[in-house]
Specification:
Elements lengths: L1 H5 L14 E6 L5 E7 L7 H17 L13 E3 L5 H9 L3 E2 L5 E3 L2
Antiparallel strand pairs: 1-2, 3-5, 4-5
């Protein structure tokens, strides 16, 4: 019960003793990277948690972001360019850009 209370798994008004369904993604350094809460009446998606962990690992390894629903092999979101020259260079390097600051690419 101590752990459930510490991680906010006891929802006020729902129950005094039953913990909600919660999943925590904690990295090797002990940093909480993601938390997902579900009501007691609904199940969790293990496939989504696996996808999330792979997306976090990819973001950390390459210094970029992943879009919603990203799967390994999908395009990733790169940080915005720092200069106009970098923005122009991206167009010639095969980046998919919807604006000068928002671009995706394949890894």
């Amino acid at each position: 019960m101590q752990v459930a209370k510490a991680y906010g798994m006891i929802q006020p008004g729902a129950s005094d003793t039953s913990a909600v369904r919660a999943t925590f993604v904690i990295d090797p350094q002990g940093v909480l990277r993601a938390m997902v809460y579900y009501p007691m009446s609904n199940g969790r998606s293990i496939d989504e948690f696996v996808r999330l962990v792979k997306a976090l690992q990819t973001s950390d390894e390459h210094g970029l972001a992943t879009p919603e629903g990203w799967q390994p092999g999908d395009k990733v979101i790169v940080p915005p360019p720092a200069t106009a020259e970098q923005a122009e260079a991206r167009m010639a390097e095969g980046y998919e850009c919807s604006d000068w600051y928002f671009c995706k690419k394949e890894l």
